[in-house]
């Protein structure tokens, strides 16, 4: 909740033309005589009036404003005051009309709807018909409503969009009393106003939703207005006007986007109906046929050959076309994103697409063994998956690449000239068992993931990637030594099969080396961020340096060599260095807990609750990005527990 907001308050905004009875209705709602009621035709109320009242233990705030069609600055000032007085937002707008819905009411409403707020406000608006003497008689109310609706289409539309009309009558009580007739008239008017109040409040009790109406920039405007009032400098009207113009511009952009989306849906429907059963698709763009936006060719079971030319499509997806042999694409000047997946019989992929920035290719078994990337000079995102015959990828022409994902390319042996892609930030290579070397020297790399590359013997020195924050090296058995000491920004590390690991000088908070049961040397010194270290599965560990870390406890009961060193030395061992306050646990009886469940089922969240920590990353993703399990020990009621968060049950592929 922002500063100034009150929980549960109902904010009522009263608007309407001059002399419609706004102040009178406010007094009726508040059961007070706070708002000045004026019988003059031209009422001279400056700015706005507000008052709080309580009904049935709920707090209400009433604000009255007059909507001027001409004075925009006054209008913006009033809206600024409304926002400042209602930081929570608007619960309900009461739009007042009297007698018949005349042109002035229509103009006032449209000004209110379009100039001040937007069309969404109608959901929070109730029309209140004032000065209706027969407000207690249902038949009279229905007759008036029918007459109002049939007045014009514009009136009918306004009434249909809003709640109501609610019929009330608020006769005056500020009458000069000169005799008993005047006294009786005042008392009768008070009773009539009380009935009107009950009608309004009973309606508001159900109409006022739990949520509030706000402009997108409401909270931002509130803070700016509060600053203007606090500092005494600045112009509220200018701030409101600037914000409204920006909001309307955004709304116009969104409207254009929605229109394009609707057109694209129609184009897609027409395309599917016309071509879904064809064997050959040959389309050349022309005035009468000019597909634009996005196009999806999916599950076309008979399609064998497709040729697309001179179309304005920006995004193209070709998916699951099992008979497709040939794809020819040329002169698609607007195409920036291309995805071709699940076309196992594809033999020819000809595409001269100089503007392409995103490319995904997957599921090729007969395509040639080299993917020619030379024409894709503007490519920023590339994903190559399950490309059976692919042996070589050459990146000499791709200098703008930001993200590269390669998965399931069983014959891939060479990734050449990746250093040319100097802007690369994310690199993932998974299940490429014949890849032997991987060279990357990109200063911008922040995420590196290498999994299941059985023949990989060497990766680039990590000193070449000083911005690296996340590193995964799993199931690459030929890489047994890893030195991360030059990556000071590294916060996440997962590794397996290592014999020696140096991760000193990093920013890792939690480190588990349980997938390295044969590790002998572990150096994680000079890391004041390290708070959790798990070596419980490292039976061969001979050297451990965790000095200058923030570890408070460490279990070494399965590390026979460390136990030996620790027990033989009354002081610190040369082969086991640790912080002076570290609680070393040599032997203990553990209660082991294993957490299993589907991906997204809340395993990591439950882990954090059990251990009273935030060590396990809680992810909102539907697909887990954690291949390694995580583990932590904790104490409860004098007993020791060890809890393990396993990988999710089901599909654990990083890229579906």
From TrEMBL:
One GO cellular-component annotation of the UniProt record comes to:
membrane
Annotated keywords: Chloroplast, GTP-binding, Hydrolase, Magnesium, Membrane, Metal-binding, Nucleotide-binding, Plastid, Plastid outer membrane, Protein transport, Transmembrane, Transmembrane helix, Transport
The compartments listed are: Membrane; Plastid, Chloroplast outer membrane
G domain residues: 13-113
Q: Please tell me whether the keyword Cell division is annotated for this protein.
A: no
Q: How does it sit in the membrane?
A: Single-pass membrane protein
Positions of the AIG1-type G domain: 592-652
Q: Which domain of life is it from?
A: Eukaryota
Q: What is its main location?
A: membrane
UniProt GO MF annotations:
GTP binding; hydrolase activity; metal ion binding
Per its UniProt record, the required cofactor names are: Mg(2+)
Q: Name one GO biological process term.
A: protein transport
What's the protein here called? AIG1-type G domain-containing protein
């Amino acid at each position: 909740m922002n500063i100034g907001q009150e929980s549960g308050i109902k904010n009522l905004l009263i608007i309407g033309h001059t002399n419609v009875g706004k102040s009178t209705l406010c007094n009726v709602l508040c059961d007070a005589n706070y708002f000045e009621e004026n019988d003059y035709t031209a009422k001279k109320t400056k700015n706005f009036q507000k008052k709080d009242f309580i009904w049935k233990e709920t707090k209400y705030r009433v604000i009255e404003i007059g909507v001027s069609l001409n004075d925009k600055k006054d209008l913006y000032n009033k809206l600024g005051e409304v926002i400042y007085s209602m930081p929570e937002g608007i619960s309900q707008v009461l739009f007042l009309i009297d007698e018949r819905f005349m042109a002035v009411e229509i103009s006032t409403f449209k000004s209110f709807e379009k100039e001040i707020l937007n069309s969404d406000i109608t959901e929070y608006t109730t029309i209140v018909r004032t000065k209706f003497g027969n407000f207690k008689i249902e038949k009279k109310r229905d007759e008036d409503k029918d007459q109002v609706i049939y007045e014009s289409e514009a009136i009918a539309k306004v009434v249909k969009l809003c709640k109501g009309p609610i019929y009330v009558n608020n006769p005056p009580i500020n009458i000069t009393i000169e005799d008993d007739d005047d006294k009786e008239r005042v008392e009768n008017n008070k009773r009539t106003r009380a009935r009107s109040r009950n009608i309004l409040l009973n309606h508001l009790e159900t109409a006022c939703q739990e949520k509030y109406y706000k402009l997108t920039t409401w909270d931002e405007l509130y803070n700016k207005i509060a600053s203007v009032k606090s500092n005494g400098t600045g112009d509220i009207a200018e701030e409101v006007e600037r914000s409204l113009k920006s909001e309307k511009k955004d709304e116009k952009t969104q409207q254009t986007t929605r229109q394009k989306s609707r057109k694209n849906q129609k184009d897609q429907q027409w395309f599917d109906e016309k071509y879904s059963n064809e064997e050959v698709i040959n389309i050349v763009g022309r005035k009468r046929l000019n597909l634009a936006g996005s196009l999806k060719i999916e599950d076309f079971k008979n399609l064998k050959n497709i040729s697309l030319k001179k179309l304005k499509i920006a995004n193209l997806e070709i998916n699951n076309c099992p008979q497709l042999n040939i794809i020819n694409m040329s002169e698609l000047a607007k195409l920036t994103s291309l995805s071709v997946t699940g076309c196992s019989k594809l033999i020819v992929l000809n595409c001269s697409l100089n503007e392409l920035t995103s490319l995904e290719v997957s599921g090729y078994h007969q395509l040639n063994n080299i993917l020619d990337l030379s024409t894709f000079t503007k490519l920023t995102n590339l994903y190559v998956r399950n490309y059976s015959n692919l042996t070589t990828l050459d990146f000499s022409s791709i200098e703008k690449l930001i993200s590269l994902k390669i998965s399931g390319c069983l014959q891939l042996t060479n990734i050449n000239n990746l250093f040319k892609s100097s802007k690369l930030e994310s690199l993932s290579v998974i299940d490429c068992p014949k890849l032997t070397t991987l060279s990357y020297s990109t200063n911008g790399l922040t995420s590196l993931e290498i999994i299941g590359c059985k023949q990989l013997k060497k990766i680039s020195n990590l000193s070449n990637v000083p911005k690296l924050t996340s590193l995964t090296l799993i199931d690459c058995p030929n890489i047994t030594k890893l030195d991360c000491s030059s990556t000071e920004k590294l916060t996440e590390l997962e590794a397996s099969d290592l014999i020696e690991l140096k991760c000193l000088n990093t920013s890792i908070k939690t480190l588990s080396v349980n997938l390295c049961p044969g590790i002998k040397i572990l150096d994680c010194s000079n890391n004041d961020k390290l708070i959790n270290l798990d070596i419980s599965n490292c039976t061969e560990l001979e050297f451990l340096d965790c000095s200058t870390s923030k570890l408070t406890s460490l279990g070494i009961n399965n590390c026979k060599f460390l136990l030996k060193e620790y027990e033989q030395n009354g002081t610190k061992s040369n082969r086991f260095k640790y912080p002076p306050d570290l609680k070393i646990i040599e032997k203990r009886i553990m209660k082991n807990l294993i957490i299993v469940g589907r991906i997204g089922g809340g395993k990591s969240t439950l882990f954090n609750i059990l251990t009273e920590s935030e060590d396990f990353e809680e992810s909102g993703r539907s697909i887990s990005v954690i291949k390694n399990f995580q583990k932590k020990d904790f104490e409860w009621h004098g007993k020791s527990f060890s809890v393990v968060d396993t990988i999710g049950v089901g599909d654990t592929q990083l890229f579906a």
